[in-house]
Amino acid sequence: MRKLIVKVIFTLTVLFTSYSAHAQSDRQFKAEFLNRINSTRQKGCNCGARYMPPAPPITWNNDLEDAAAEHAKDMAKRNYFDQISKDGRSMGDWILNAGYTYKGFKSYAIGENIASGQESIGEVMDGWFKSEGHCLNLMNPDFREVGAAMYKNYWVQDFGGRESFSAEQQKLIKSGKYRLVQKKIAGHDN
């Protein structure tokens, strides 16, 4: 019995240590991405020939991280490198399917950066900041949230920005004095 208790305690210790190491590396991954993005957003930068002024800090969003992870895994599994998957899914599909929705928000904006072959966050971020289109996503003030993932050297970074209705606007909507008109997002029904 004593041997069994020692074995169970050892197994639980190993599992907890493994989980703690993974959680720590996950926190470090997110923190490094956010630090690199926000330090540049704070200063402003040139995206190609276009100067982008300072932008508000961006925060991490787990739904966007999940969308990025699914896209990265799909590219690795199906051996392609594109923002449109081999079965026709787009950035909007990945993001909406991960739960980052637009319903109930005043505004909604999404974007995506992809890369392949880089071996570190520093390397992929340097490349994205040197590429005009990727840099414009990173500096876009409409994007307030980000999630990123790397799987087998496929990197995906998904951006989002949602603005809630003010308390006054919510009252007007509930009273019927303010009418919502929904626009179709490409490829999606409202």
Characterization of the model:
This protein starts with a helix and ends in a 15-residue tail after the last helix. α2 crosses α3. The strands form 2 sheets. The chain has a 4-stranded mixed sheet with strand order 3-5-6-4, with helices on both faces. The radius of gyration is 20 Å and the shape is globular. The relative contact order is 0.16. It is α+β, with helices and mostly antiparallel strands. Helices cover 49% and strands 18% of the residues.
Give a short overview.
The chain is an alpha+beta fold and 190 residues long.
Helices and strands, with pairings:
Elements: H1 2-43, E1 45-47, E2 50-52, E3 59-60, H2 62-78, H3 91-97, E4 107-116, H4 121-130, H5 132-139, E5 145-151, E6 154-163, H6 167-175
Parallel strand pairs: 3-5
Antiparallel strand pairs: 1-2, 4-6, 5-6
Helix pairs in contact: 2-3
